[in-house]
Every structure is written in structure tokens, then in C-alpha cells.
Amino acid sequence: MTTLASIYLQAAQSQNSPNLITGLLPLILVFVVFYFFMIRPQMKKQKELANYRSSIGKGDKVITTGGIYGKVVEVADNVVTIEIANDVKIKVDKNAILRDPSDVAARQ
């Protein structure tokens, strides 16, 4: 019986067990692909939007997240006053401004 046990132990030690690198490599690759195709472009888009919002000035044409087109009349700290028709002005949060209407025309 000891001979059988020693043969079993030798066989178990000689088998190549998968190491940690081969087990984690697919997970690391999935994360890298996810980062470059999902996270990085989103961060880039958010940075561009933040730069656009900080550069908004009087007379700029804008579109809000609600789809309202207008012209900026006044800019305060976080509040922008937009004229949407003659003598019709609304105040919106700066974060509610989505983009420049010329971007929409360029896409079509």
C-alpha cells in the first residue's frame, strides 16, 4: 500500500497546476479592453463637455438637456439665463446645457 501511495503522490506533484498568471490573464485583458472602449472615451467626452460649459458666454447659442434651443443672455456662477423667444427668458443650471446647435447641424 505504501508503494501505491508513493506513486500517487509522485503523480500529483508532477502534474502542472495552472499558475496564477494564466488564470488572471483573461480577466486582465477584459478589463483593458473595457477601459479603452468604454471608460476612456466616456471620460474624454465628459472633459470636453465640462470645457464647453465653462466657456459659455453671452450670445452663444445652446441646447439644453431637455431639448430647448436658445441664446445665452446672462451667465452667473452655475446658472445661465437663456432667451428662447422674444422676451422669453429662462434660467437653467449650467449642467443642463448639452451642446452647441451647430454640432447638431454638422451631424446631419
Total number of helical segments?
3
Protein structure class: alpha+beta
CATH overall fold name of the largest domain: SH3 type barrels
Number of strands: 5
| Major beta-sheet overview | 5 strands, antiparallel
Using the alpha-carbon principal axes, give the shape: rod-shaped
Measure the end-to-end span.
Answer: 82 Å
Residues in β-strands, percent: 25-35%
Radius of gyration: 30 Å
Estimate the helix proportion, in percent.
40-55%
Low-confidence stretches: none
Descriptive overview:
- This protein is an alpha+beta fold and 108 residues long.
- It folds into 2 domains: 19-55; 57-108, SH3 type barrels, CATH 2.30.30.
- It contains 3 helices and 5 strands, in the order ααβββββα.
- It has a 5-stranded antiparallel β-sheet.
- A hairpin with a 2-residue loop joins strand 3 (79-85) and strand 4 (88-93).
- The longest helix is centred in the middle third of the chain and has 35 residues, at 20-54.
